[in-house]
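To: structure subgroup
Subject: Chain for Friday's discussion

All,

I'm putting the inputs and outputs inline so they're searchable in the archive.
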Amino acid sequence: MDLVDKYLDEDIQEAKLSARGRTELARLEKEDNRDDGDVDWRRKTLAFMSDGRILQKYDVRFTATQYSKARKHSYGWTEYLKLKKGRIPHESYPNLIKSLESKGWIVKKKLMGSY
């Protein structure tokens, strides 16, 4: 069974880190320096929240052109996934984080009291 099917409900909405008194429990990042002409750097960040939601933020650096300088841009936080009802974040997140680490994600803020 896929981890997404086991632990998560997909529901994408705009989000804010401090909404409804929640706190950030862990943070992972993955960078990509592949140049596709318009963008020469990308970073995707996942924030694992105390209310069972996982937020994502996408940052890019647009390549310089003859008309403009290179510039960075952040698309802001959006709700990426949320735990299924009945799942407890401190019990579910360690397995998800280990799975993402094996796929090249880097832990920037470690989940306290786990693995």
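Points worth raising on Friday:
Residues 3-109 form one domain.
Residues 27 and 109 are 5 Å apart (CA to CA).

D.
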